[in-house]
From TrEMBL:
Top-rank lineage group of the source organism: Eukaryota
Name the record gives this protein: DRBM domain-containing protein
Lineage, opening ranks: Eukaryota, Viridiplantae, Streptophyta, Embryophyta, Tracheophyta
Organism (species): Triticum aestivum
Amino acid sequence: MEMSEESGATSKYNDDGQIDDFLQSIQKIRDEILRKESILQERSAQCDMDIQTLLSEGKMTPKVVLIIRKYKETCSDTTEVTNSSCSGDGGQSITKRKKLKKALLRQCKELDEICRGAHWILPRYTVLPSVSDGMYHASVRLRCLDFEMSLTGGLRATPHEAKCSAAANMILELHKKAEEQEQEGIRCKITLLNS
């Protein structure tokens, strides 16, 4: 957008409605980029895990055959790739795993909603495989005008579950921070009343 030096030229760009429209457009673009980044990060962590498995196995074993088959097949859905690589279900039924995934997914969405409501930048995640046990580990970072916070989650079976574990920890920490601020506000009021 070019603006001329003429008087009144900037006023057509200062309309609050236009700013809100541009803001929403930019936020949509950013959200789509973050969604794609998240998918790529999860797939990358899965590839890292599979590479380590191939290197540690060193020969054709059932695990290696499964990994090779997975990459030979074309898969358009990232969650299928991520879920297909989990060996076994640890005795859990598929229904229980789906419920867990839905519960975890709510944590990621809840953290996004908290950030949007507070006009913060959406959280950024880092997911890494834990080669020794075949699990994934994630950290989440929030950066705002008032503070910056970074936390990790627990080890999980899939990259997405690891991200959501980190999100759940961040939500808990944000609630603690809000309670501390509320308590501090109450203490200040009591001090003012007593003086």
